[in-house]
């Protein structure tokens, strides 16, 4: 060892969260743990990049590297390497589709197609020993394995739970879940040191002993996003889910009723053409009916907007629910390893309470949106726009759409929920146009401005603008460019009616620099 000027090391480039590269730097759980160990090793360590784990093992067999990491402590499949003291431990898990039912016994997996990562001999051997009748599919990367699961080509993908949790949270939170931990006790991972380097092994072990285990746990859980420090309250989830189900059923009922009313309106309009006598009386009667039908149409678009909000809530909740699910899967591991102490619980309560509070705020926003306004009241325009855009943010981000809001807000007197209904309709139209035209960098811009008497709301998108041949028709009832996608042709018509009839403002549409621009003008209240 005295003659050594450096220690050479290679890691399996399996990918994050364990080990990967970014801008030429080593990153991941193992890279950060190794950085802690290096502080107590007197000889510099040089990393040898390798394309795969097999290459790393082969280099150590040829004695071209001194250390290989990370190997399973027991059973050690690499006889030319001696495992150090435990550096990290993990469970073996199986990822399946999110809708797969739970199984009670591992033997239920007999004859199922299960994907494994090439080179992970210890994991492969361990699982096949437990379930010898598996159909094994070998894959080149973690993402390849999970992609096969998502497409239904294999039942599950097996790997350690840190990697499964990381990939599912970041790429497959709406599709996959960690079904079960296969091993009852965690597998320990160690640094593999060449057999003929006992002194180096001793140095490595002393360095491992000098590192606080809490520091390693913090590194692991920082990479897995959110720690579990308290059981999830499924009662709350059940109550909220029941509430949403009731709202959906009520919505479906009223939509059906409204469709029946629309059909009746069509029959009434046909009947109007046949009346020649008592014209004044007949027109007065029919105008009343039309006003009633317009009110019903307004309510229909309100329900459609509420459907948009329910969809937005579903998008907003998928990621935190997936995070909480992964946390529950990892809680047992922390308990068995005696990692749960008072500090652990304090962090847990804080982080998971933030998730539940976020979900609760989403429901509050939805309730405020659905609240019926019986009287006009003063409200802040930007505040209501922000509430709607926040609910739709996940839907927009999932489609790569950026939304910006700028300018100074102002107050108006009107019906806040009807105003938000207009914003929902305009944002939905902009989103649909951006997706339909396959815009590379889609963006929706909301700009507020005001003068002494008026407030102005400008909503624009870069979807290419509106065809000049139809721009004068877009505010007509039942005129739509989205018939194949289920457009009703009522969104802009009702939006204009709300702004101009109910709020005494104006709503107009124009094209500017390949962008469609909606301009809403409202009377500003004193002090707004």
Can you offer a commentary on this structure?
It is a single chain. The longest helix has 58 residues, at 279-336. This protein has a 5-stranded mixed sheet, with helices on both faces. Strands 9-8-10-7-11 form a 5-stranded mixed sheet. Strands 14-16-17-19-18 form a 5-stranded mixed sheet. Mean pLDDT is 80; it is low at 226-236. It is an alpha/beta fold and 528 residues long. Helix content is 47%, strand content 21%. A hairpin with a 3-residue loop joins β16 and β17 (454-461). It is elongated, with a radius of gyration of 31 Å. The chain has 13 helices and 19 strands.
- Which percent range describes the beta-strand content? 15-25%
Distance between the termini: 76 Å
Q: Biggest sheet: strands side by side, in what order? A: 4-1-5-12-6
Biggest beta-sheet profile: 5 strands, mixed
Shape: elongated
Average pLDDT figure: 80
Rounded to an integer in angstroms, the radius of gyration calculated over CA atoms is 31 Å
Number of strands: 19
User: Given the helix and strand composition, which structural class is it?
Assistant: alpha/beta
Total number of helices: 13
Percent helix, as a range, is 40-55%
Residue stretches low in confidence (pLDDT < 50, at least 5 long) are: 226-236
């Amino acid at each position: 060892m005295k003659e050594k000027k450096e220690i050479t090391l290679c890691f399996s480039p399996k990918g994050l969260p364990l080990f990967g590269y970014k801008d030429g730097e080593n990153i991941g759980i193992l890279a950060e743990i190794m950085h802690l160990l290096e502080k107590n090793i007197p000889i510099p360590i040089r990393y040898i990049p390798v394309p795969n784990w097999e290459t790393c093992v082969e280099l150590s067999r040829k004695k071209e590297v001194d250390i290989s990491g990370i190997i399973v402590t027991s059973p050690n499949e690499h006889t030319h390497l001696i495992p150090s003291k435990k550096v990290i431990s993990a469970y073996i898990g199986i990822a399946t589709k999110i809708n797969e039912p739970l199984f009670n016994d591992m033997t239920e997996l007999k004859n199922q197609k299960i994907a494994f990562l090439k080179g992970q001999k210890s994991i492969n051997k361990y699982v096949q020993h437990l379930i010898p009748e598996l159909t094994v599919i070998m894959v080149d990367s973690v993402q390849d394995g999970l992609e096969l699961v998502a497409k239904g080509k294999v039942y599950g993908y097996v790997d350690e739970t840190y990697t499964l949790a990381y990939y599912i949270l970041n790429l497959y939170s709406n599709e996959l879940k960690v079904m079960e931990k296969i091993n009852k006790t965690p597998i320990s991972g160690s640094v593999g040191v060449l057999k003929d380097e006992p002194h180096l092994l001793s140095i490595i072990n002393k360095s491992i002993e000098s590192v606080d285990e809490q520091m390693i746990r913090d590194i692991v859980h920082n990479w897995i996003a959110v720690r579990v420090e308290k059981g999830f309250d499924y009662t709350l989830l059940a109550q909220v889910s029941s509430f949403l189900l009731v709202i959906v059923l009520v919505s479906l009922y009223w939509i059906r009723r409204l469709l029946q009313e629309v059909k009746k309106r069509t029959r009434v309009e046909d009947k109007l053409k046949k009346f020649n006598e008592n014209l004044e009386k007949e027109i007065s009667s029919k105008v009343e009916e039309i006003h009633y039908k317009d009110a019903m149409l307004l309510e229909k678009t309100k329900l459609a907007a509420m459907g948009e909000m329910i969809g937005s809530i579903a998008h907003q909740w998928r990621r935190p629910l997936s995070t909480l699910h992964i946390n529950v899967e990892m809680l047992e591991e922390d308990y068995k390893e005696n990692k749960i102490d008072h500090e652990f619980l304090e962090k847990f309560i804080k982080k998971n309470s933030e998730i539940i509070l976020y979900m609760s705020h989403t429901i509050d926003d939805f309730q405020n949106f659905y609240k019926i306004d019986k009287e006009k009241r003063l409200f802040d325009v930007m505040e209501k726009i922000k509430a709607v855009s926040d609910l739709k943010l996940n839907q927009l981000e999932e489609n790569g759409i950026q939304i910006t809001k700028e300018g100074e807000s102002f107050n108006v007197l009107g019906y806040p929920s009807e105003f938000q209904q207009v914003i929902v309709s305009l944002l939905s139209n902009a989103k649909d146009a951006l997706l339909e035209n396959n815009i590379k960098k889609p963006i929706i811009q909301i700009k507020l401005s005001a003068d002494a008497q008026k407030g102005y709301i400008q909503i624009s998108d870069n979807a290419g603008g509106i065809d000049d041949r139809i721009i004068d028709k877009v505010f007509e009832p039942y005129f739509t460019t989205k018939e194949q996608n289920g457009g009703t042709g009522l969104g802009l018509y009702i939006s204009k009616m709300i702004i101009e009839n109910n709020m005494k403002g104006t709503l107009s549409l124009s094209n500017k620099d390949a962008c469609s621009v909606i301009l809403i003008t409202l009377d500003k209240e004193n002090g707004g």
